[in-house]
Amino acid sequence: MILINVLILLPHLSTIIATKTEESLEHVIAEVGRDKLSPGKYLEQFKGEDPKKYLATVGNVGIVLDIENYSGLQLEDPVIYVHAGYKDEKYGHPHNMGGTQQEVFLYHNKKRLQRRSAGSTSWMITKDGKPIWENESKVSRLHFMWDLPKYYCKPETVNTVSVGFHTHDKAKITEKLQYRYYDLHLKRARVFAHHNHFLARVNISRGCLPRVLLQFASTKKDHKSDQVASSIVDKFNPLDEDFSLLSILLLSAGVLMG
Predict the structure, then answer these.
(1) What are the angstrom distances between the C-alpha of 71 and each of 9, 65, 202, 210?
(2) Do residues 190 and 162 lie in contact, with contact meaning Cβ atoms separated by under 8 Å?
(3) What burial class does residue 244 get, using C-beta atoms within 10 Å of its C-beta: 0-12 exposed, 13-18 middle, 19+ buried?
(4) pTM
(5) Angstrom distances, CA of residue 205 to CA of 64, 146, 178
(6) Cα–Cα distance between 62 and 54 in angstroms, integer?
C-alpha cells in the first residue's frame, strides 16, 4: 500500500521539485541583482555597445552567448567543441569566469556559404580555485550546447540550446569527450537543470543571429556570493541535503489532498 501511494505521488513530486528549483533560481537572481554582476574581459571591451551589432558584421548565422554567474563559485577549465561554424577570433575563446560575473562569447559562420553554427562547451565548477569533488572522486561541470540548424535561416527559424550538469572522474576533459555531450544534449535538450545545489537555465531567441542567455547559481550557503545579504536556503529548498524524502512525500500528499 505504501509503495502504491509513493508511485501515485511521484509525478506530483517531480512537478513540485521542478517548480521549486526554478523558484530558487529566481530568488538568487533577485537577491544578487543583475546590476551587481561585474563584467568579464570580453564584455568590458564592448564598452556598453551591444555585442550583437559586432556579430552582424562578422557572421550572418551565429550566437551571442551571454553568461550570468549569480554564485560565488568560479567556472574554470573551459573546453569547447565546435560542430559547425567557428569561434570568433576576438571573442570566441572561452575562459575562466569569476563569481558574480557576466561575460559574452561569440560563435558564427564568418558569413561563409553553407556554414551554420553549433557546438558545446563546459566549465568545471570550483570554489576558491579548487574543484568541488563529489564522493572524493568526481567533479561537476556545467555543460552548454547550441545548435542553429540552418545556414539559410529565416527570422522565424527555431534554434536549440541545452544546459546540464555532468560529473567526471577527472578534473580535465578532452575536446573529443565534449563532442559526446554536444550529441547527448542535441538529442535530449533541456533548458533548465539542477544537480545537488547547482541551478542553471538557458534560453535562445529565434532567427539567424540569436542571443543566448545562460544563468548559473547555487542555493548552498557556502556557495553564495558576497553580494547576497541572506541565503535562500533558509527557505524551502527540495534539493537541500537536510530535506528528507519523507518530508517531500508528505508535502506531495498535502498537494493531492488539497
Answers:
(1) 32, 18, 16, 26
(2) yes
(3) exposed
(4) 0.82
(5) 11, 12, 24
(6) 11
Grid cell in block for residue 60: 550572418
| Main-chain phi, psi angles of 107, to 5 degrees | -135, 140
| Alpha carbon distance 240, 243 (integer Å) | 5
Q: What is the CA radius of gyration of the chain?
A: 19
Residues counted in the chain: 258
SS (H, E, C) 175-224: HHHHHHHHHHHHHCCCCEEEECCEEEEEEECCCCCCEEEEEEEECCHHHC
> Pairing mode, if any, of strands 117-127 and 74-84?
antiparallel
Q: What are phi and psi of 94, to 5 degrees?
A: -65, 140
Question: Which residue carries 563546459 as its cell?
Answer: 122
Q: What angle do CA 25, 27, 33 make, to 5 degrees?
A: 100
Residues 130-156: pLDDT tens digits? 998 887 788 999 999 999 999 988 999
Which residues in the chain land under pLDDT 50?
Answer: 6-7, 9-10, 12-17, 229-251, 255-256
Amino acid at 57: T
CB 181 within 8 A of CB 142: no
Distance, in Å, from the CA atom of 83 to the CA atom of 119, rounded to the nearest integer, reads 5
Model pLDDT for residues 32-43, shown as the tens digit of each residue: 999 999 999 999
